[in-house]
Amino acid sequence: MCTDDGDVIYEWQRVANDIERRIRAGEIPPGGRVENERELADVYNVSAGTVRRAVRELRERGLVETLPAKGSYVVDVLPPAD
Length: 82
Hints:
The protein has 3 helices and 2 strands. The chain is mostly helical and 82 residues long. Strands 1-2 form a two-stranded antiparallel ribbon. The protein is globular. The two termini are 22 Å apart.
């Protein structure tokens, strides 16, 4: 997939960017649970592997924490936007 200016963007980046947008817009509040892998795969029409990579990116950006067998949650204090 390409952006309007011709840059290549991977599906996992598109998913991560949209979830970040939702977090920053308050659609998923601090402490709120991000949809599970299957739900996100259905919403974004992507594979589970793509969702896993997107969630990993959100962790690296400091936006979510993932708890084993519990899911991913928005951190209480968001880092500044780029």
